[in-house]
Each structure stands twice: as C-alpha cells, then as structure tokens.
Amino acid sequence: MKAKLIGMAVVLVSFAIVVGGYAVSAPDVEKKPVDPSGDEPTYIEVDDGAEVYVDAGEFTIGINGNITTGYSWVLAEDSGLELVETSYEASDTTLVGAPGMFLFTFDATEPGEYELEFQYVRAWAPEEPIETAKVLIVVL
Predict the structure, then answer these.
(1) 47 partner at 20 to 30 Å CA-CA among 32, 111, 121, 135?
(2) Are the C-beta atoms of residues 18 and 76 closer than 8 Å to each other?
C-alpha cells in the first residue's frame, strides 16, 4: 500500500512539473521567415505574447479565428506600422464552420520595436472583446 502511494505521488509530481513547465514557458522568440516559393503560407502565425523579428518592408501576420461565429480579429490601435491590408483566409477543409486565419499586412519602414494589440470582437456589438492578443514586432 505504501509503495503504491509513493508511486502515485511520483507520477503526480512528475505531471505537475511537466504541466507547470508549459504554463510558465516564455513565448518562442525567433525570426520567422516567409517562404517565397508558395509552398508554405505567406504569413507569420502568431498568438498572444509572440515576439516576431522581421526585415524592413511588407510582412503579413495571421491569427487563428473563426469568422462564422461573428467574431473577427481587429487591430486595436495605431502601432506606428502602416497597416496595408486585412483579410480572412478560410481553412482548406470542406467542413462548415471550420476556423481560418485573420491576416494583417503591414509595411515596416523604420527599424525598431512595435507593439500590436489585436481584439477578438463582434463589430456590431458594444461588448468587451472576448480575447486579446499582444504581439511585439521587432523590425531589424
């Protein structure tokens, strides 16, 4: 009985360490290149807390969402980067209601750090956003 309890405690502690490590790990910090061959998506997929390093010029970031729910990702405020275009790319599936990608194309002319804040909102509803995402863009 005592050995069984010790075994269960070891499993629980191991699980807590693994789960805890994921919960407090920092977001990936990397330069995410865009594949010009067309084989890969031509956007950089991000989520809340992401840090993205890009060269000066145009780049596109994408945030997962589902437009069929009535919610859309919108840029909350001016970041200092020029917003060139926004669009939505549906997933490749034939399933109705499948999520897709909200795309935001920016033109970065000056090196520096720019914080983007996105809000997941219903444009016609005055309620608070159900989700927000802050993304740090570092233009090299």
Answers:
(1) 111
(2) no
